Protein: Potassium-transporting ATPase KdpC subunit
Amino acid sequence: MNATLRNTSRLTFAALRALLVLSLITGVLYPLVVTGVAQGAFPDQANGSVVELDGREVGSSLVGQTWNDEDGNPDPRWFQPRPSAADYDAEASGASNLAADSPELLELVRERRARVAAFNGVPESEVPVDAVTASGSGLDPHISPRYARLQADRVARARDLDGAAVRTLVDDAVRSRVAGFLGEPRVNVLQLNLDLAELDR
Structure:
């Protein structure tokens, strides 16, 4: 009986030592090493890719946001992002989970297409897919070059700017595929709007 108790005690202490060592490695040392490497090699990304304007934080280049007027409606003076099932709330990120053949989703897309076309003064046939569909996260900071170009004339009219200058701004904001083959060409809405603000000063 005593031998059994000693054996059990020895195994218990061994398990506790293993728990302590693994907790230190995986709960303290590993996070510190990863954080140190991230801060050293990728400080901008590690700190949330925060974008500043005149010394004030205005958002993150990794997270989309709304560009609304005081009444909560899309502001015609700014380029607008794609729809978001989470309304760009990082604490509630996610998709609508509606199936591609969902009647509710199809009706929502039809409504969005009509709204985007009317807002930008273009035919519904010119409205691109990303203007009427949300991303999986609901936080996508990018839109397609096609959607950005569709908005350029509306933004120019709202700000009384030269349309060609705004279109050039959009063309300069287009980023190519990652590594030349991953994803699609894209435009970061926050960065484009900051460039627009500089143009309009």
About this structure: The CA atoms of residues 111 and 132 lie 9 Å apart.
